[in-house]
Amino acid sequence: MRHPSKVVATLLCAVLLMGMLCPTALTAEENGTVYIETPQDLIALAASCSLDSWSRGKTVILKKDVDLTGIKFSPIPTFGGVFDGQGHTISGLTLTSSGNTQGLFRYLQEGSVVKDLQVTGRVCPQDFQDTVGGIVGDNSGSLLRCSFQGTVQGKLYVGGIAGINQADAAADLTGWSDVGGIAGSSSGILQSCQNSGAVGYPHVGYNIGGIAGRQSGFLDGCVNTGRILGRKDVGGVVGQLEPEMTLLYSESFLSRLGGELDTLQTLIDRLLKDADGTADDLSAQIRSLSDQTRWTQQTAQDLGQAVTDWADQGIQEINDLSIRISQALDDLEPILGNLEKQMGDLNSLAKALSKALTKAEELGKLDDVV
To answer: Helix/strand/coil (H, E, C) string of the chain?
Structure first.
């Protein structure tokens, strides 16, 4: 019969070994916040997220850069909270095992947010190779200010950021299809995205695009500078575009915008009338603002009319007008900023001139006394 102390010692050793082999689940603070500082924290996060309900309502904060080089890491299975990268980088990500839907996150649930995160590494699954992304395999949440640098390889629904962006029911395709620099297939919103890496292979694959392989949602302000290769439906931005109407601006918003633009135009016209004697550069800025405001007013009116008569309008026309409104509002911002600066400079100059005149007047009075 074994001595009791030896049995206890054996059990303790077994417990310690189990603790070393099995990652412990993370514990959230009372406010639902979880902090990530080490590779072990990320591994524990993945273990905790095996249940789709665990992460909901939680905020995960990456406090520093984390290097996964040489560390065996399995994707975070499903995530439904907020993951704030705070501008930090998860480097050395290596995912080469078998299985569909691969990325740092396998699935992002509806309502989830991943933001301000940079990831570098390789996502090259073996065997099954569909729904592959650098950040997420299948995204139903929001990705904000995220980037991926490295290699993403697959055959169907492959993207540098997301394999599928806001899940899109699609036909069962074979071969290399729906491959994009940002998203393989997107039915959601892709805005202000950039891709500079090569996408695709010569004479291989369908629906290959610099931003999205196949896009049926809304795409605005995206730029691709990488080389795009494929066999059919290959595009610098989108390989295959399936247009849908995505209305970003409601009629009430357009009506309110029109009223604000009318007020702005009235002020600009009054300013132009009073600015005849000002510097040429300032006058040019004011005229530029006036022209841009009028153009924005007309675009808002056109879009409002198109929305009212949407049944008689082409989907592409409404989408084009929506994009023009976005661009017009973006263009107004720097003009207003430059004008505000110049008006500030002019105001400072006027104050300085006023002080100089006052000083000159005082000196003149001294001369009279003398």
So the answer is: CCCHHHHHHHHHHHHHHHHHHCCCCCCCCCCCEEEECCHHHHHHHHHHCCCCCCCCCCEEEECCCEECCCCCCCCEEEECCEEECCCCEEEEEEECCECCCECCEEEECCCCEEECCEEEEEECCECCCEEEECCEEEECCEEECCEEEEEECCCEEEECCEEEECCCCCCCCCCCEEEECCEEEECCEEECCEECCCECECCECEEEECCEEEECCEEECCEECCCECCCEEEECCEEEECCCCCCCCCHHHHHHHHHHHHHHHHHHHHHHHHCCCCCHHHHHHHHHHHHHHHHHHHHHHHHHHHHHCHHHCCHHHHHHHHHHHHHHHHHHHHHHHHHHHHHHHHHHHHHHHHHHHHHHHHHHHHHHHC
pLDDT tens sequence across 160-202: 999 998 747 333 334 578 899 999 988 888 888 899 989 988 8
Whether 205 contacts 173, CB under 8 Å: no
Instruction: Give pLDDT tens digits for 323-359.
Output: 566 666 666 666 666 656 666 665 665 666 667 667 6
